[in-house]
Each structure stands twice: as structure tokens, then as C-alpha cells.
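Lab notebook, bench 4. The sequencing result for the construct came back, and we need a structural model before the next group meeting so we can plan mutations. Quick request posted to the team channel:

Model the 3D structure of this chain.
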Amino acid sequence: GVIDTLGNWLIQPIYKNINLQKEYAVVFNPGAAMQVDYQGRIINSFVVDQIEELFFTRMTVQIIEGMPQNVEQYISTGCFAYTIGGRVGLMNAQCKRLTEALYEQIEAKSATMFVATLIGYEGQVIIDNNGNVVR
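Done. Here's the predicted structure in C-alpha cell form:
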């Protein structure tokens, strides 16, 4: 939390980490970060460290200079991996969070299938393009 010089709470002590700025603080819990003012009001409830567009690869044969060649194509999934405090989640192009940031990494296997690695590299789950874990 954050206290003023008189010992009054400006931001309650409910966060794992806090980065202080002059005008606000960024508060962190595992897989979540928010921008908070010094009256404890949330300015932005979804603060991310990084966003990366997810692509999958497909091999095709193309004729190049009269010869067939294997060519790797990078195809967008229309989804993005977002990172908060070292944890990764999945969101769509409209910025809708499809999963919370619960994973070490997310990798696209096709336009509708993603492999998410669990925290601590304790295994993987398959996620569809709606954020559902495939069972």
C-alpha cells in the first residue's frame, strides 16, 4: 500500500507490488495491473506490459524461378497475447480479454487453436479462439 506523511492510507495494502509515479501508481497482483490515483480510485483497470500479435505458420509449395520451393507463410490469428507482470493472456482484436493472464506463454498452432504453457512450465493446455480450454 501507500501512506501519506501522516500515516493515512492513500492506496490500501492489498497489492503484491506498486510502482509509484508522481501523478499515480501502477498496482500489481499476479496477472493483473491497474493504474490508481492517490485517492485509491482506479484510473485504468487494464494496464499491460506488452501486446504481441499471434501468427501461425503454414508451409506451401510455390514455383520460384521455375522450381517448386517450400515457403513458410505467417498467417495472423486475429488474436493477441498480452503480458502483465510476466504472465500472459489471450485477447481478440477488439481488445476483449479471452483469458486472464494465467500463463507463461501462448503460442498459435492454427487460426483457432493455441497452446498455453502453465506457470512454472508445469504443463500446457489447449485454448480455442474464444478463450475456452479444450477438454
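The chain has a mean pLDDT of 93.
Will bring this to the meeting.
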